[in-house]
Structures are given as C-alpha cells and as structure tokens.
Design goal:
Length: 332
C-alpha cells in the first residue's frame, strides 16, 4: 500500500511517499528556516503563506522522486495537529482535497504520534514496549509506548520545551535561530561544569519537565557578565546544554525503570543533538537499556513519519471524517 504523507505544522513543508508503512520511497522537506531566522523565530503568518507556495511543488517532487504516478497512490495522510493553525490548514486541506478528488482514504495524523513513528521506521525498529521522548521546539513529552496504537503520556513540560530553551538561550547569546545546532557546536569548545545551572527535577516521581528556571538562570548570568569572550560564551553553552541533558537523561532512565522498559527512543528536532543521545546511551547502559534515535533526516519535521503513522490508521479504518478539523494543542 502506497501512502502519500504531508506535513505542514510549523516551518517545514514536507511530502513523502512510503510503501507498506516502512519503505521510504521519497521524502522531500522544504525548510523555511532562512526566512524565519531573520525574525529570531517562526512568524506564523509568514509560515502559512510559504506553505501555500510550497505545498504543490513539494508534493509533486515527492511523487516524482518516488518513481510512481499519482494513480499508484493508495491513501493520503496529513498532519492534523498540534501546530500552528494557519500552517496546519494548508497541508491538511491540500491532503484532504487530494484524497477526495481521487476517492482515496484520508487520515489526519497527530504530529507527536508521528514523531514516535519515526522510531518505528528504524531498521531494526525498537520492540514494544519502549519509552519514547518527543523533544522539539514545541514539545517535551515522555510516552510509554506499548503497541503501534498505544501511547501513554507519562510526562510533559510545564513551561518551555527543551528545543525552545535552546532557541531562547541562543538568542540571548546572539547566536541566531534555530539555537540547538549552534549551541551544540559551540558547547564542544566549552566546559560543561564551568557554571552550575539549576536542574529542575520537580516533585519526586514526576516525569514532567520545567526549563524556564534554567533559561532565567542563564539570563541572570548574562546580566551579571555582560562582556563575554568566546571561551566564556562556549562555557555558558556547554553548562546550559549539560543541565538540559542531565534532566532529560535522569527522567528517561527513571521512566524506563518504572515501566520496566529496556528500550528508550528519542525523536524530534532535539534528538539531532549527539551530545545528548551519546550521554543517554552511556548513562543507561549500566541498566541494560538500549537507545534508539532516528537518522538526522527523520529527527526534525518530515512527512515520512506522517505517512508511516497514516498507513496504520488507514489499515485500521481510522479515517478522517468530513467534520474533523485541525487542532493547535496536544491531544495525547
Ligand atoms: O521537530 P522540530 O524540527 O520542529 C518542531 O516541531 O519544533 O524541532 C526543532 C527544534 C528547535 O527548537 C531546534 O533548536 C531544536 O529542535 N534542535 C536542536 C538541535 N537541532 C535542532 N536542539 C538541540 N541540539 C540540536 N543539535
Ligand atoms: Zn515536530
């Protein structure tokens, strides 16, 4: 079964063709980062307009690169939420119209479930059950995944997402948007123990996160030391990153211990951070745990994960009804 996947929840217009839920025939991502970086973050109105311009060419490129004709598509899946409403509407409406015009089944996919599916696209895929962290600019969610359809939310951020904290700290340091990759590379030259930034663990046994205190601590530190040389900047980047990594690793290992899972998957934009995934690998090893993370091309937003999730929904008859609309906030 060949599924066309479409993603437009934030600042990437993406389309992909996936066969039988696992074989990626094509995956095209048109990023708007260059445009938004001038404003230091995603501008929703601009994002919607750019999706409108990109969606048709991106879908056709995905079909061409897959080496198929439109007639070979058996179903369509598009992101329904969470995300920016105007941005979501572009891909969702396009996908729905595309499916209806060809009387194909259409699935409205949850973006966070799709990030979990980016782990199931791995070869070999992690066996169930496993702990999954979806960590991006908008979310820091921990799930106990027990089957292709069962995702129990164990914890989430109460304020900033981890990626958002990276972006805000990068902005304070004048490093531009998106912040994650620049902070990670700058941190390589810094001392992670130079500054003792707080590690907010919240109440005992909680799998929730809070990164706003850490962000404020960095702001206070910068306020006290306005003139920074490159080494001091690198030390701040490394110390901040170490604080985020410590909290993420500790909570994930605790979640895996509590649910007796031996596998932890990390997906979403921040999973591109090798310092984090390497630390998690090292720290979880003594407990016999194994870490999974997608290849770089599937860490950030992409449509292959949407098609993969859409495939299982279509196979199970979980189709989108006419009255279903996009949604901005988390449902699971
Ligand atoms: O999943 P994604 O592409 O889009 C959202 O749904 O948000 O994630 C983007 C986020 C941004 O906050 C970005 O700074 C972060 O992922 N990110 C990173 C790294 N690469 C991207 N954070 C830390 N380290 C990285 N190497
Ligand atoms: Zn995402």
């Amino acid at each position: 079964m060949i599924i066309l996947g479409i993603e437009s929840s934030c600042d990437e217009t993406a389309a992909a063709v996936v066969e039988n839920g696992s074989r990626i025939r094509s995956s095209v991502v048109a990023s708007q980062i260059e445009t938004h970086s001038k404003y230091g973050g995603v501008v929703p109105e601009l994002a919607s307009r750019m999706h409108i311009e990109a969606i048709d060419p991106v879908v056709h490129q995905a079909i061409d690169e897959a080496g198929i004709t439109i007639d070979q598509i058996d179903g369509v899946a598009a992101t329904r939420g969470p995300g920016l409403i105007g941005a979501l509407l572009v891909g969702f409406s396009y996908g729905r119209a595309f499916a209806w015009a060809r009387t194909l089944p259409f699935a409205g996919v949850d973006h966070l479930q799709a990030h979990i599916y980016s782990l199931l696209l791995l070869e070999p895929a992690p066996q169930f059950p496993f702990i999954a962290l979806v960590v991006s600019g908008g979310h820091t969610n921990v799930y106990h995944v027990t089957s292709p359809h069962d995702f129990e939310l164990m914890g989430r951020t109460r304020d900033d997402a981890a990626g958002e904290a990276f972006d805000k700290v990068a902005k304070m340091l004048g490093l531009g948007y998106p912040g994650g990759p620049v902070i990670e590379s700058m941190a390589k030259d810094g001392d992670p123990s130079a500054i003792k930034f707080p590690r907010s663990m919240l109440e005992k046994g909680s799998f929730d996160f809070s990164f706003s205190g850490l962000k404020s601590a960095v702001a206070r530190h910068l306020h006290q030391c306005p003139e920074l040389n490159l080494q001091e900047q690198a030390n701040i980047a490394a110390s901040f990153q170490a604080a985020v990594i410590d909290v993420l690793c500790q909570k994930l290992i605790n979640a895996a211990k509590k649910t007796r899972c031996k596998r932890i998957g990390v997906a979403g934009g921040v999973s591109a951070n090798k310092t984090f995934t390497t630390a998690l690998d090292v720290r979880s090893k003594p407990y016999g745990m194994k870490i999974f993370s997608p290849p770089l091309s599937l860490c950030g937003d992409n449509a292959a994960m949407i098609a993969a999730r859409g495939y299982t929904m279509i196979k199970n008859g979980a189709l989108c009804t006419r009255d279903q609309d996009v949604y901005s906030r988390v449902k699971i």
